[in-house]
């Protein structure tokens, strides 16, 4: 375990629990149905027929079985009273096998490290999902961000990097997809994903939290970008996606249009596989940055 105490400080010192790093949560078992796969696809405006028919799960569906493991893992390290300050900072999926109807998935998660930044602190959680044959289906790295909180030091391992070279995004994109976030998007996504957070459903609570109103779930926005990538580069074939990562930059509001632009990455970035970097914007405002999609050749 590495430790670095040179990070800049936020204004609210809080003691994080180093002993919570590496502690796996209890196993959560999730039975996959065709109906749940199809519901998630419909809730994310996914146009890919195999997803809509419930034949195979879309990429970001992988978060659904792990949803109730992530926050407990982060709160093994961060004090539980910080729960309402938790914001989803980054998400990074590593796919090993697709999710299909009939799969019985076992999920668990553990914090791998935390870091103090100038505007707050992050806790990195690693989740893993295995199927009924004990095959590793996917690994996920979730970066939870606590705004204004000073953990005082950096401890443990952070998530794998996926930052884009700014020079890349100044070039002409190889693909561009614009999609509309529906006015009722969050009300459809919430039951499909199992995410009941009130900032996505209650206007008053969202405004009390300092938001302009109800915001789209970050993972719903990520799901939009995933089907855009699959449609643009592998004819919608989810089995060819090896990694999919984003950094959430700004919230998306229902009723807005989002545009995702993709740029090809050199082969040495992805170990010889095909890879694209991407960003998603609403007008001139980036809402997702440092996007990465890696496909098998």
Structure in a nutshell:
The chain is an alpha+beta fold. The chain is 21% helix and 34% strand.
Description:
By secondary structure, the protein is of the alpha+beta class. It has 7 helices and 14 strands. Strands 1, 3, 4, 5, 6, 7, 9, 10, 11, 12, 13 and 14 form a 12-stranded antiparallel β-sheet that branches. It has a two-stranded parallel ribbon with strand order 2-8. A hairpin with a 3-residue loop joins β5 and β6. α1 (34-43) packs antiparallel against α5. The longest helix is centred in the last third of the chain and has 16 residues, at 218-233.
List low-confidence stretches. 1-9
The best one-word shape is globular
Radius of gyration: 18 Å
- Describe the sheet with the most strands: 12 strands, antiparallel
Strand content: 25-35%
- Multimer state: single chain
| Helix-and-strand structural type | alpha+beta
N-end to C-end Cα span: 35 Å
The helix/strand order is EEEHHHEEEEEEHEHHHEEEE
Mean pLDDT, rounded to whole units? Answer: 93
**DSSP helical segment count:** 7
Q: How many E-type strands?
A: 14
Helix content: 10-25%
Q: SSE layout and pairings?
A:
Elements: E1 3-4, E2 12-13, E3 28-31, H1 34-43, H2 49-52, H3 63-74, E4 86-95, E5 104-116, E6 120-130, E7 136-147, E8 149-150, E9 154-156, H4 166-169, E10 175-180, H5 185-193, H6 203-208, H7 218-233, E11 241-248, E12 257-264, E13 274-282, E14 285-295
Parallel strand pairs: 2-8
Antiparallel strand pairs: 1-9, 3-5, 4-7, 4-11, 5-6, 5-9, 6-7, 10-12, 11-14, 12-13, 13-14
């Amino acid at each position: 375990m590495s430790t670095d105490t040179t990070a800049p400080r936020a204004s609210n010192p809080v003691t994080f629990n180093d002993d919570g790093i590496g502690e796996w949560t209890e196993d959560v078992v999730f039975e996959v149905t065709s109906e749940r796969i199809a519901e998630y696809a419909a809730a994310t405006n996914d146009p890919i027929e195999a997803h809509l028919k419930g034949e195979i799960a879309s990429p970001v569906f992988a978060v659904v079985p792990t949803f109730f493991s992530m926050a407990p893992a982060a709160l093994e390290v961060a004090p539980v009273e910080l729960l309402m300050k938790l914001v989803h900072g980054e998400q990074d999926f590593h796919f090993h096998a697709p999710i299909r109807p009939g799969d019985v998935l076992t999920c668990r998660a553990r914090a791998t490290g935390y870091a103090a930044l100038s505007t707050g602190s992050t806790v990195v959680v690693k989740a893993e999902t295995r199927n009924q044959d004990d095959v590793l289906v996917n690994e996920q790295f979730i970066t939870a961000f606590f705004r204004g909180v000073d953990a005082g030091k950096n401890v443990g391992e952070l998530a794998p990097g996926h930052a884009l070279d700014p020079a890349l995004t100044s070039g002409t994109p190889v693909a561009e997809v614009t999609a509309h976030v529906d006015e009722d998007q969050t009300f459809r996504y919430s039951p499909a994903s199992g995410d009941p957070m009130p900032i996505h459903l209650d206007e008053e609570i969202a405004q009390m939290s300092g938001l302009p109103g109800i915001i789209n779930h970050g993972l719903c926005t990520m799901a939009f970008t995933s089907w855009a990538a699959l449609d643009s580069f592998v004819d919608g074939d989810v089995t060819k996606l090896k990694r999919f990562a984003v950094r959430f930059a700004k919230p998306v509001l229902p009723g807005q249009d989002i545009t995702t632009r993709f740029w090809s990455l050199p082969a040495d970035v992805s170990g010889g596989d095909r890879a694209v970097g991407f960003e998603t914007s609403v007008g001139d405002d980036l809402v997702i940055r440092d996007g990465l999609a890696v496909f098998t050749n």
